[in-house]
Write a structure and sequence with these properties.
The protein is α+β, with helices and mostly antiparallel strands and 144 residues long. The chain has one domain: Jelly Rolls. It has four helices and nine strands; from the N terminus they run ββαβββββββααα. The protein has a six-stranded antiparallel sheet with strand order 1-2-3-9-4-7. The chain has a three-stranded antiparallel sheet with strand order 6-5-8, with no helix packed on it. Strand 1 and strand 2 form a beta hairpin. The protein is globular, with a radius of gyration of 15 Å. The model has no long low-confidence stretch (mean pLDDT 93). InterPro entries: Cupin_2, QDO-like, RmlC-like_jellyroll, RmlC_Cupin_sf. It comes from Siccirubricoccus deserti. This is Cupin domain-containing protein.
Length: 144
C-alpha cells in the first residue's frame, strides 16, 4: 500500500511510550511513511539508554535541556540546536543532564516497534532489568 499524506498535531499525538524513564511519542512510524520514523523524546534528568548500537541510522535534534552524548569512545555535551547523526552500527548513548526534549529520526521501520515492545514490558524494569534488555536485543540492538 502506498503511504498517504498525514498531519499530526499536538492534540492528536498518540500516547507516549515509556522507555527507560523517557517518554517517546511516535509522530511518524515507518508503517505510515513507508520508510523513515520521527519521534519526540522527553526525558527527566538522568534518563537515557546505556551504550548500544542498532541496524538503523538515527539522528537527534536537541530542542531543550542539555544532554551528555557518547559516540564510540568520545563524549560531549549537547545543548539546544545540536544535531547528532549516527549511522547504523554506531555505538552510542545519551543521558539527560536536565529535563529536556529531542526530536529523533530513524531511516526505517524498526525503532517504533522496539519502543512499543519495551513500553509493553516496562514492569520488567523494576523486577528483572535483564529481561527488559532482552526485549531490545530481539530488535537488533547490540551492546559493546
Amino acid at each position: 500500500m502506498k503511504p498517504q499524506p498525514f498531519v499530526v498535531t499536538p492534540k492528536n499525538y498518540p500516547k507516549p511510550l515509556s522507555v527507560r524513564g523517557e517518554e517517546i511519542t511516535v509522530l511518524a512510524s515507518g508503517e505510515a511513511t513507508g520508510s523513515y520514523e520521527i519521534f519526540v523524546q522527553q526525558g527527566p534528568e538522568g534518563s537515557g539508554p546505556p551504550p548500544h548500537a542498532h541496524p538503523w541510522d538515527e539522528s537527534f535534534y536537541v530542542v531543550s535541556g542539555t544532554l551528555d552524548f557518547g559516540i564510540g569512545d568520545e563524549a560531549f555535551i549537547a545543548g539546544p540546536g545540536t544535531l547528532v547523526h549516527l549511522p547504523a552500527g554506531t555505538t552510542h548513548w545519551f543521558r539527560f543532564r536536565e529535563a529536556g526534549q529531542m526530536i529523533s529520526m530513524t531511516d526505517r521501520l524498526a525503532a517504533s516497534k522496539m519502543f512499543t515492545d519495551i513500553d509493553a514490558a516496562r514492569e520488567l524494569a523494576q523486577t528483572d532489568p535483564a529481561k527488559l534488555a532482552e526485549v531490545a536485543l530481539r530488535h537488533g540492538l547490540t551492546r559493546p
